[in-house]
Amino acid sequence: MGSLSGKVAVVTGASRGMGKGIALVLAEQGRLDILVNNAIAIPDEIVQPGGFWEKPLSNWELFDIGVRAAFVAAWYAARFMVSQRSGLIVAISGYVGVTYTYSTIFGTTKSATDRMARDMAIELKPYRVASISLWQGLTMTELAKRNLANSACDPGQFDLVSGLNSAYSNQTLTNL
What we know:
The protein is α/β, with parallel strands linked by helices and 176 residues long. It has helices spanning 18-29, 61-84, 104-124, 142-150, 167-175, and strands at 9-11, 34-37, 87-93, 129-135. It is elongated. Residues 14-20 have low confidence and may be disordered.
């Protein structure tokens, strides 16, 4: 397994004040090697049966957290990485960007995340900074288990026995 010794990494996961928090971390460290955009908040009603028109319009906040916040964090991170001429920006995504899972807004958010990571990679490549979308597979967190049990999606599209545990993403990132 690779080592992150001597590397500075930021992992997002908060849904509020993230841009400010990222800026503070970066200012303290003076460098940044890895940014992992992992922030997303899934409202309970997202996984309930029903069409997008039957759910609160406030569910659009999922897009703001999953895409806008990732863009803001990457914007701050790229400023450090480009000047260092090295770095890795990782967007946590998955199969939900190309399959129906939970709701229209959830899939749309992950599709946008994938496209954003790809387009950032093109713009960052001349500066030796990489941007990737990491498809971690079904990660069996407590939230995922609860949401899948209540979801309108087809449970047959998931292998609930061999779903990944949360350590898998950590091992994958370390090896990158």
